[in-house]
Design goal:
Largest interface: A-B, 70 and 81 residues
Number of strands of chain A: 7
Strand order of the largest sheet of chain A: 1-2-3-4-7-6-5
Distance between the termini of chain B: 74 Å
Oligomer: heterodimer
Strand content of chain B: under 5%
Number of helices of chain A: 9
Helix content of chain A: 40-55%
Distance between the termini of chain A: 44 Å
Shape of chain A: flat
Largest sheet of chain B: none
Structural class of chain A: alpha+beta
Shape of chain B: globular
Order of helices and strands of chain B: HHHHHHHH
Structural class of chain B: mainly alpha
């Protein structure tokens, strides 16, 4: 590792916060101990970072914001049933319980988000379109599987013969309700838009991590945002394949 | 619905950090207050549906960030970018020079950093969130978070270096 490579790693390293046992960080820190100039740079960098952290934390909320939030809560959110003695009886408790259970079971939105399979599929596509990035870039599927397995993401996914023939370019690990989702990125061979490295995406999640998927016997084809998607279940996993054109998608199934 | 007692405790604990994050994104007190209030409103009405209670902090920050994005109607695709050495070169600023700047100046400088990098950098400095938490809040892969933070720090420090007043010339006797 060179001094410049060590600097790249240490720019975003926060002593006491980030994991110093990360192999790259540990190697960079070890180099600091033997390279006086690098050590001096790192000490200055940490001092600058601490100053900046202090500046950001100097932001203070306006007086009254907390009270305003609480007032809004009282004004718009009805009191819970156990505090409305005159109104609520046993029947109301039962109704509320059934209603809440029903909402829970039917996957109502959390934080404005649809928690159904449809919501999952939309989130994966939106995330890819808005913030596409790979954790690992490689054409080697074995390396992709090894990386995903190390991240506790679904790694033993199946690929259709046509998909297995498509060039793999890397992978990433996304999250759905705190559960890992595998994203494998491919290239169809068509010209890519500037800045993009992939135009075909396979998302894999364990079936148990989705609430309502059941089992999609037939492949479902749905347009989500600007991507065409195909969804299906196989074994204990749920697959979503997304491409920019329906033709690209169907050729890989 | 979240109970009133839970709600008050949650507000006491998180309204300030949420406001700080919101202000870092909007650089407007009114907009930051609105975002913070709206976040707690969403919690009050839907927070009970969160299954993992240890995810409350991440949930609140994710909700605020989503609302910010929605308010900006940003659907731009951010291409994946490799970390290049040249872009990560940091300007030479002494820590003492940063100490002369006030918070408003630093936040204003963050506003001139590429939008893609603003939220990760704000979370990096404000909350001591782990990379995993930042990735969850922003709903992007961990590798992307690291890349954006590194680039964002570099850009921020370049902005600050430009803003620093010139060092006074020493008078020769």
């Amino acid at each position: 590792m060179t001094g410049e490579q060590a600097k790249e790693i240490l720019i975003a390293y926060r002593p006491g916060v980030d994991d110093a046992t990360d192999p790259e960080v540990a190697a960079a820190l070890a180099l600091c101990r033997t390279d006086a100039a690098l050590d001096e740079w790192f000490k200055n960098h940490c001092a600058r970072q601490n100053m900046l952290r202090e500046k950001f934390r100097g932001l203070t909320a306006p007086e009254g914001l907390r009270q305003q939030i609480l007032s809004e809560f009282k004004a718009h959110i009805p009191l819970p049933w156990w505090r409305r003695r005159a109104v609520v009886g046993a029947l109301a408790c039962l109704v509320i319980g059934i209603a809440l259970a029903s909402i829970w079971q039917t996957l109502g939105p959390v934080g404005g988000e649809d928690l159904s399979f449809n919501g999952y599929r939309q989130r994966m596509v939106r995330t890819t379109l808005r913030a596409y990035g790979m954790d690992l870039e490689t054409n080697d599927v074995a390396q992709v599987r090894a990386y995903l397995a190390a991240q506790q993401a679904p790694a033993d996914f199946e690929m259709t013969p046509a998909l297995a023939q498509t060039t793999t370019v890397g992978c990433g690990v996304l999250a759905w309700q705190g559960r890992p989702v595998t994203m494998v990125c491919f290239q169809t061979g068509k010209p890519l838009e500037p800045g993009n490295k992939s135009d075909l995406f396979l998302f894999v999640i364990a079936k148990k991590d989705l609430r309502d998927v059941g089992c999609i016997e037939e492949k479902q084809f749905t347009k989500v945002s600007e991507l065409a998607t195909a969804s299906w279940c196989s074994g204990d996993k749920v697959y979503v394949l997304a491409a920019f054109t329906e033709a690209d998608l169907k050729q890989r199934l | 619905m979240a109970s009133a007692w839970d709600f008050e405790g949650l507000v006491a604990r998180y309204y300030e950090p949420l406001y700080q994050f919101a202000f870092s994104l909007t650089r407007s007190e009114a907009d930051a207050c609105d975002l913070t209030q709206q976040t707690f409103y969403v919690w009050a009405t839907k927070g009970h549906q969160l299954r993992e209670q240890d995810k409350v902090k991440t949930w609140l920050f994710t909700t605020l960030h989503r609302q910010f994005l929605e308010s900006r109607r940003r659907q731009t695709r951010f291409p994946h970018q490799e970390i290049g050495t040249a872009d990560l070169e940091l300007p030479t600023i002494q820590p003492g020079e940063i100490s002369r700047l006030d918070t408003a100046h630093v936040v204003a400088a963050l506003g001139r950093v590429d939008e893609t990098y603003q939220a990760p950098v704000a979370l990096f400095y404000l909350q001591d969130c782990s990379y995993k938490e930042i990735a969850e809040i922003l709903e992007v892969p961990m590798g992307t978070v690291k890349s954006r933070i590194s680039r964002g720090i570099s850009q921020l420090q370049k902005m600050l270096a430009k803003d620093l007043p010139p060092k006074p010339n020493r008078l020769e006797s």
